[in-house]
């Protein structure tokens, strides 16, 4: 397999990403003070910050994938699925040059079967743990006994 065109494409994309990275320095706000701002102005600034963070994160992940693909080219394993060892079709590599797996194994990571549970947010484990405790069965009643906004006529 001739990996030269893929290597060139990967290196060009890496250079393009690295060229844009230094321009994202500090988040700029449109106001000097948040005290008298309309909430929509603050929301706009926050949305802009989150968008920029998401784009930066995407570029970092893309750089990692490019580096992994370039390493595979260096090792001579580029074009071979990391999971099953079958040849990755050139059509797939032309569209996704960072692909290290065939289409059938695209959602799997380096030979390990990533179950749905492994892909869930970590917060869910903490939240589920809190609701599975035996002493949590009567939590509403406990809170209500401590105090509520009900008046005596509501009871």
What's the arrangement of secondary structure elements?
Layout lengths: L3 H17 L18 H37 L14 H6 L26 H10 L7 H8 L9
Helix pairs in contact: 1-2
Describe this structure in words.
Residues about 110-115 have low confidence and may be disordered. This protein is mainly α and about 160 residues long. It has a domain at about 5-20 and about 40-110: Four Helix Bundle (Hemerythrin (Met), subunit A). It has five helices and no strands.
List keywords for this structure.
mainly alpha, 5 helices, Four Helix Bundle (Hemerythrin (Met), subunit A), single chain, 155 residues, elongated
Structural class call reads: mainly alpha
Averaged pLDDT, please?
Answer: 78
Radius of gyration: 26 Å
* Percent helix: 40-55%
The total strand number stands at 0
Quick structural summary:
The chain has 155 residues and is mainly alpha-helical. 50% of the residues lie in helices and 0% in strands.
């Amino acid at each position: 397999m001739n990996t030269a065109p893929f290597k060139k494409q990967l290196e060009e994309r890496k250079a393009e990403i690295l060229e844009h990275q230094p321009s994202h320095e500090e988040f700029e706000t449109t106001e000097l003070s948040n005290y008298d701002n309309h909430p929509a102005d603050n929301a706009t600034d926050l949305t802009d910050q989150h968008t920029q963070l998401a784009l930066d994160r995407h570029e970092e992940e893309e750089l990692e994938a490019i580096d992994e693909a370039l390493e595979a080219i260096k090792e001579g394993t580029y074009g071979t699925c990391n999971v099953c060892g079958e040849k990755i079709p050139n059509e797939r590599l032309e569209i996704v040059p960072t692909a290290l797996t065939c289409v059938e194994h695209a959602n799997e990571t380096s030979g390990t079967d990533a179950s749905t549970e492994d892909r869930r947010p970590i917060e869910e484990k903490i939240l589920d743990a809190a609701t599975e405790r035996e002493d949590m069965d009567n939590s509403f009643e406990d809170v209500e006994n401590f105090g509520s906004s009900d008046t005596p006529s509501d009871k």
